[in-house]
Amino acid sequence: MGQHIARRLMLLVPAWLVMGIIAFALIRLIPGDPAAVLLGMEATPDAVERLRVRLGLDRPLVVQFGIWLSQVVKGELGRSFFLGEPVLQAIMGRLPVTLSLAGVALAVAMFTGIPAGLRAATRANSPADLTIMALSVVGLSIPDFAMGLIMIFLFGVALHWFPISGYVPFSESPGEWALHLLMPGLSLGIVQAALIARITRSSMLEVLGMDYIRTARAKGLIERVVIRRHAFRNALIQVLTVVGNAAVILLGGAFVIETVFNLPGVGNLVVMAVKRRDYPLVQGCILLISTIVIVVNLIVDVLYAYVDPQIHYG
User: What is the pLDDT of residues 245-262, one digit of tens each?
Assistant: First the structure.
């Protein structure tokens, strides 16, 4: 297992290189000159050119990429054109907001979707099963940003139960932190909860039809023990897979929800960076996202072996 983890961590290097090349190329394909955007519409061509020289944008693209890559190797991500601060500092200042939002949304998805899927599977074709599956279809049909807008109008504007924007750090006030993240977390987590519920139900129904489940029941084990110890553990592999995918999807969806609820996270930072053609900031954010995706997939792989001892990584 240790060797497998070490090999997966080594994949970070080529993944960083590939994602770095993609990020470097894509942001430069977007029309617009960062120097002109920074100086505004009234800037003279000479002023724009001087700023381009100062930012290093007059150099060949290969040279620019080499300079940026050397900074990444040193543990730096360059300096933001617009913010005037190191990219790593700008990202780390906003990363807790995005991770908090994604964490709350993942908790909503897991603690809603898994129990709902279990109940639907153990009550197959019953009114409870049909209701849960119908609700899951509704949840999958509504985009997270639309769900966010509905919640803002209903619980924020009409009922005044929750704040509709802003963020309060957990260290300042845990209660306010929860209040500000509840609606965004629900908006983001409901779709993935519906998907997890459907996958959990499907996986459990498959396991419940196995011979060893009938044997366990024939031995006189109570139904709760059969479900928890025998059925659910063997169905957990597929559930872990969809939860791991959900964590990655929620991280990307957090960018949209941050804009809807005006949360000062990495998502808002990326949107601002793209609008202002802040090349170093966009590249740094893409590297961060790719790193988190690889780490999440690694955690899921480790959990596979923990859940099912028959899985070995050579």
Answer: 888 888 777 878 888 888
